[in-house]
Amino acid sequence: MKMTRLAAAIALASSALLASTASAETFRWSSAGDGLTLDPHAQNEGPTHNMNHQIFDTLVYRDQEMRLTPRLATEWYVTDDPTVWEFKLRQGVKYHNGNPFNADDVVFSIMRAKHENADMKGLLTSVVEATKVDDYTVRLRTDGPNPLLPNNLTNLFMMDKEWAEEHNVTVPQNYSTGEETFAVRNANGTGPFRVVHREPDIRTELVRNDEYWGIGHYPMEISRIIYTPIASTATRAAALLSGEIDFLLDPPVQDLERLNNAPGLTVRSGPENRTIFLGMQQSWPELKTSDVKGANPFADVRVREAMNIAINRDAINRVVMRGQSVSAGMIAPPFVDGYDAALDEVPAVDVNRAKALLAEAGYPDGFSVTLHCTNDRYINDEAICQAVTGMLGQIGVRVRLDARTRSIHFAELPRGELDFYLLGWGVPPLDSHYVFHYLYETKTDVGGAWNATGYSNPHIDALIQGLTSETDLEKRSGMMSEIWNEVHEQVVYLPLHHQMLNWAMKDNIDFPVQSENTPYFKYLKYKK
After folding, report:
1. pLDDT tens digits for 29-42?
2. Fold of 22-264+507-526
3. Please, are residues 163 and 111 in contact by the beta-carbon 8 Å criterion?
4. Which residues make beta-bridge pairs with 227?
5. How do residues 218-229 score in pLDDT, each as one tens digit?
6. pLDDT of 365-393, one tens digit each?
7. From the DSSP assignment, how many helices (H) and strands (E) are in the chain?
8. Under CATH, what is the fold of the domain 272-500?
């Protein structure tokens, strides 16, 4: 739950063993989709974090082995007041423009990330105050004891207060309205690489920050990074096979064997901290895209259950994912606190029972609806949706598929504009509260940011909010179990599978996968 001074010192000392002489290597890599913005607080989204982790630093982060590790904070602990965490900051750190990093930047960044525009605010709902004790000490006061606060800071980037004021970006970008600010395409971090060229969705070029505080702690063997997003799966694989790129974050599952057997290439694999699922708008009196008028089929749990048992997850795993997924019954992988193996069991496929449930709910002839799906975010996302469309068609749910780019999907989805949608969810704090708070809590200004289902349960809300301050581990575990069982019974979402993680790269690269699918390129080494 917390890291002591001694534990922090040990973790830092361990990272120092990774140090090696930096070399002049240009590193080219690709994935399906670019980060949505360089504004470090505007979007809580994987590819966006992947880019910003190269440029900015957080107070703490999860390293290659998923251990909570010092970054800009060297130690952190609860004070004599159980509602106050104190963070000791790393000294001598500079931003890319030469400005010194200090407590003022931390206080500014925390409060900026709590702004209504910030998608990161959901991680800081318990924080009521950030105060500077001295130049290298900050205290965060919460609205009750919060043993998980450091876990929520692993993607919370520190921003230069002076730079933000100079460029009029003290307020985060309002991504949902398409706002453009200086921080969208420009950045000034303390991270291992700095931006020299940024064309969103085309090319981003970073160069090594030779003044980085971690030069003596991490390999830092890359001198220049060139990132080129490639939406086409076939083109991404071809780019690696031809030598145009050195590293592919999301190799197509159908090409894994070919890539792994190609001369000079290798594929490294591991479990990913991400679950793919379907959401249904359950609160509207009428769906926007359905042929049912005056009623909402998704408001009836029998309809949701019918759809749940109509989806053949094993077939999706076998045919669409080529074995690179694990069928899921809940939106949390096994290494997340609160995971329940019994709830993760997938329901047996039963088309006849599904049809009967639809008839009981008043839809013997089924109904039509549009499924909105990304085509450039998750592994084989569009193909997954195509498979689901066919499976639901067998029970009379006639699905029109609208597959589109993630930038459009993730702008519309939080606004609650979609009837039926695909989403994937990782759990950086490795605790179920993160899932509950974003996906199941009633949507308000402070909670349920990605709950586009309309699901609202005051009792569940109270349990979710109570998790942040409950320090009795046995009682907290019971609260999580109660929440999971209730939302599972109500079939709030349709979990599909937990993703497996594959990174494809040139075989002269030493770079194990990281379960959050976050490639910290400061760790990458070349085989000698």
Report:
1. 999 999 999 999 99
2. D-Maltodextrin-Binding Protein; domain 2 (3.40.190)
3. no
4. 29, 204
5. 999 999 999 999
6. 999 999 999 999 999 999 999 999 999 99
7. 15, 19
8. Dipeptide-binding Protein; domain 3 (3.10.105)
